[in-house]
Amino acid sequence: MDFPTLFISHGAPSFALHPGQLGPQLTALGQQLPRPRAVLVMSPHWSTRALSVDHADRPGTLHDFGGFERALYALDYPAPGAPEVAAELVDALAVHGFNAQGVTTPGRDHGCWVPLMHLYPAADVPVLRLSQPFTPSPLALLELGRAVATLRTRGVLIVGSGALTHNLRDLDGGDAPASYATEFGAWMGARIAEGDLDALLNYRYCAPAARRAHPTDEHLLPLFFAIGAAGGQWTQARRLAGGLAHDAVNMDSFIFAAAPSEPRTAQSIQSIPITEMS
């Protein structure tokens, strides 16, 4: 089968310990999907000038953050790497004119392993990463996603890990939750439901409070990678309602290419509140 693609709002690193609304939905999704050969993750917390693929056999777990509760630094996500799939990824990118290099990194960034703690908590599915290029555009990430779409037919689950809203200045403000985060998320969800790719690509000029929701682009760009990797099926979308974390982080996430004809895709999940977008 062709695997769907995911955009997961990974929130703060503390999401690993405090699953909120989204965590149980990711766990149920991981149980319902057929077991993938590997999971390919792109996260803004591994960004490089030269496009890179982590091909390590046993990457470590990076605690690339500070100021959080002590228990978070004891967490480990020991999923194996996927060097064979990494080689296939480099080849697939080359076919589309992208020159990627295989590298060995010190470990996986939290944008990779934190959401996987919920999606595959046993850490028994191989994981590889593709770096997020410096200063790309939504269109560039869309094209990069399209270049790796064939991996979906080879048993690879493709994940863009970011945040539907990301403004660090507004976190835990102490007042009412930021209404703009809800409004921006609703606008994005509506455009996805309508299949309005042009509006999504131009979200900075079209969406309400876009510059406050994303002072910089990097945490939303994995959404376009996931859309591109879903190919023409991206409009077969489902939303995982995640609510707001830390007053301003919209945790809504999306499943793309979730074909209703597939008996074991997200469409079949009855135990979690996946919001139909219509």
Q: Mind explaining what this structure looks like?
A:
It contains 9 helices and 13 strands. It has 278 residues and is an alpha/beta fold. The protein has a single domain, classed as 3-Layer(aba) Sandwich (Protocatechuate 4,5-dioxygenase, Chain B), CATH 3.40.830.
Short description:
The protein has about 280 residues and is α/β, with parallel strands linked by helices. It has helices spanning about 20-30, 85-95, 110-120, 140-145, 180-195, 195-200, 205, 210-215, 220-230, and strands at about 5-10, 40, 45-50, 50-55, 100-105, 125-130, 130-135, 155-160, 240, 245, 250, 255, 275.
Describe the largest sheet.
9 strands, mixed
Count of discrete domains: 1
Helix content: 25-40%
- Structural category is alpha/beta
Shape: globular
Strand proportion: 15-25%
Key attributes of the depicted protein:
278 residues; alpha/beta; Protocatechuate 4,5-dioxygenase, Chain B; nine-stranded mixed sheet; two-stranded parallel sheet; 13 strands; 16% strand; globular
